[in-house]
Each structure stands twice: as structure tokens, then as C-alpha cells.
């Protein structure tokens, strides 16, 4: 994954070599998309944030994971819980880059990362072509780099980068 943030040329480029990663995503398809990036994140120090579902526990059994609260969609108490988790995890792990495929769990982590001046990369989901997701709308202004998987999505998010589909 070699990407450069052309949307904000004054900012430092997002490089291919950050060594400490925080990979944030809901379980299921969001997690599957992050796992598809394995050739890029393999060999780097990483911490995952997702939900403690059976599929996530099985797929991440040998990984360092912080379990987030769910549901996240329009659930204010869990937003606060995940915001506290974001502060705790980011302060402890000190990632160089936060990467997320959504959904709602991404927002508190992007907010904290932005406040701590940590670079962020958001990858919009592959199955929404005709409208922007809520998480995409919230994370776009907090993203160092905002990626989409389809050309059609690029028209929805000004300054986004088309990277192609992961799955």
C-alpha cells in the first residue's frame, strides 16, 4: 500500500513504512477488508480494535486485540465507551498510523488520533457506491488519507484516492 496524501500537500506523506499500526474496524466484512491488507501490515507491530464476535476472535486469535463496545450505530453510551478505549489504546500503543475500514468504531479512534497528531487512513467500504456512509462522512475530515475502492465512490468524497477492491 503505497499512498501519498495529495489532498493536503503541505502535510507529511503517508508512507509505506510505519512500524506501529492500529487497525480499527467492525467485525465481519470490515475486519475481512483489513485482513486482506496482510501483505502490507504483516511484519509490522500492530494492535487491532474490533468487536468480540466469534469470527473476530477466531481470525485474530494470535494477534494483540483491544475489544470495542457494540453496537456503535447511534449508540451514545458505546460511543463514550469507545472514546475512552481510544484514549487508553492510543496512549498505550503509540501507533504511527491508524487504519480503518469502518464502521462506527472508527470515529472515536480517528478523533483521538487527530488530536494526538497521528496520521490516519480510512478505506471506505466496497459495497456503498451511490451514497456516503455515516462513518465515512464523520471520518473524512479527520483522515490524513481517504481511500475508496470504486471510481463511483471518488465522486462522493472529494480528494479521495481510488485503490481498487480488496475482496
Question: Describe it for me?
Answer:
It is globular, with a radius of gyration of 15 Å. The protein has a 7-stranded parallel β-sheet. It has 7 helices and 7 strands. Helix 7 links the parallel strand 6 and strand 7. The N terminus is likely disordered. With 167 residues, the protein is of the alpha/beta class.
Mean pLDDT: 89
Q: Count of DSSP helices?
A: 7
| Cα-based radius of gyration, to the nearest Å | 15 Å
Strand content: 15-25%
Based on secondary structure, the structural category is: alpha/beta
**Terminal-residue CA separation:** 15 Å
The biggest beta sheet is recorded as:
7 strands, parallel
Instruction: Give the strand order of the largest sheet, numbering strands 1, 2, ... along the chain.
Output: 3-2-1-4-5-6-7
Low-confidence stretches: 1-13
Oligomer: single chain
- Helix-strand sequence: EHHEHEHEHEHEHE
Residues in helix, %: 25-40%
Total DSSP E strands: 7
Q: Looking at the structure, what is the overall shape?
A: globular
Topology:
Blueprint: E1 20-25, H1 29-35, H2 38-41, E2 45-51, H3 54-59, E3 65-68, H4 76-93, E4 97-102, H5 106-115, E5 119-123, H6 134-139, E6 145-148, H7 151-154, E7 161-162
Parallel strand pairs: 1-2, 1-4, 2-3, 4-5, 5-6, 6-7
Amino acid at each position: 500500500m503505497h499512498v501519498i496524501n495529495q489532498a493536503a500537500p503541505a502535510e507529511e506523506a503517508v508512507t509505506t513504512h510505519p512500524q506501529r499500526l492500529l487497525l480499527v474496524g467492525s467485525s465481519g466484512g470490515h475486519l475481512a477488508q483489513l485482513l486482506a491488507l496482510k501483505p502490507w501490515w504483516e511484519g509490522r507491530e500492530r494492535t487491532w480494535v474490533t468487536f468480540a464476535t466469534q469470527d473476530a476472535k477466531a481470525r485474530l486469535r494470535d494477534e494483540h486485540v483491544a475489544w470495542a463496545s457494540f453496537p456503535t450505530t447511534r449508540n451514545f453510551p458505546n460511543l463514550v465507551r469507545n472514546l475512552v478505549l481510544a484514549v487508553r489504546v492510543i496512549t498505550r500503543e503509540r501507533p504511527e498510523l491508524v487504519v480503518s475500514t469502518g464502521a462506527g468504531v472508527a470515529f472515536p479512534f480517528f478523533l483521538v488520533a487527530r488530536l494526538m497528531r497521528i496520521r490516519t487512513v480510512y478505506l471506505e467500504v466496497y459495497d456503498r457506491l451511490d451514497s456516503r456512509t455515516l462513518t465515512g462522512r464523520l471520518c473524512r475530515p479527520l483522515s490524513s488519507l481517504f481511500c475508496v475502492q470504486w471510481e463511483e465512490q471518488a465522486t462522493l468524497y472529494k480528494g479521495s484516492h481510488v485503490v481498487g477492491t480488496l475482496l
